[in-house]
Amino acid sequence: MSATIFRNALLHVTSAEFSQVNEFAVSDHRIIPMDPALLENGTTEEINLNGMHVAPGFIDLLVNGCNGVSFANEPTTQTLEAMRAYETQHGTTTFVPTLISSQREVTSRALEAINVFKANHPGVCPGVHLEGPFINPLHKGFHPENYIRRITDSDLTNIMKERGIIAYMTVAPEIVRPKYMIALMSAGIKLSVGHSAATYFEALSAFKAGVHSITHIFNGMRPITGRDPGIIGAAFESPDVFAGIIADGRHVHPAVVKLIHRIMGDRLYIVSDAQAVAGVPKEPGSFSVAGTEIFVDSKRGLIDSKGSLAGTGITMMDGVKFLVESCGFTLNEALYAATAAPAHVLGLQEVGEIAGGNVADLVIFDDEYKVHYVLQNGYVKNLGDLM
Known about the structure:
By secondary structure, the protein is of the alpha/beta class. It contains 11 helices and 22 strands. The protein has a 5-stranded mixed beta sheet. It has a 5-stranded parallel beta sheet with strand order 7-10-11-12-13, with helices on both faces. The protein has a 4-stranded mixed beta sheet with strand order 4-3-1-5, with no helix packed on it.
């Protein structure tokens, strides 16, 4: 059996089997424990990592665009391929393209592109994130208000047909009536609360019904106050609910991130919320997403004309670094929030943890958070291959 052996590694987010070891192997696209018998095969390759960090490949559940392309603007397989190249280069081996509230025609094109892309790259893309249009315009962020609406029976029928290519949907529970939410979840479609003015009781009811995630907590939702716990308070006391956070230091203050982590622990996961400017050598003064002009402000980040935040230019590795350097996370805790936690949110199997038999999706990086190798489905790519 041919294999690639990795030695002198610092492993993170592991099963018990790999918690106290510094070497492992990859064979037939899978992670396996190191076995001296592997050396008897003359085709076995050995790579000395010299103390570099090894983590599961990052799983980004909210990517609007990157590498100069926007999925909302051009919902095509070419756009997805450009996104995949950039994501892999920065250690993200699984990503969920996001489509904000859009015209029905754009949504149809997006679903068609996702269907083809998923077939071409099994395991890389669990499906699309439909962020809207069934949200509350009071907390729309930069979503075009003209496309925000209530769900209908016809919408439900169409969504059911495409359930195999929808990773999850962000909805406002006060906008989507319970009968629709239950029908969607009964069909296996995962829902996340976001862009919502739901009360504490409305949110709690949604969580008890089976909604188990919040989209970019503290952004696009009813705030928490002393007399109104709102969505955030409901999530804090719901043990099965995860919360996504945009880890760029602008969307949520580091002190608040620390607080959320103390309360929610492993139920906190990070997303990039990246836009097309992520990875662009020279940032433009502005760019457009679904007809909305987004300005690149050196202090405030990406904002629309009303000052609403509109995504980021970061990678998941940037998010991990932010958690460690600004929010007091250990490296293992930060990596968990970028790997195992989002895997749990979508119920992804065989990824998100370094464990025997899991798919060899891995990122290998140094103490400066620089990526040296990425393994995707067991194939080793060094920095030169990724550029």
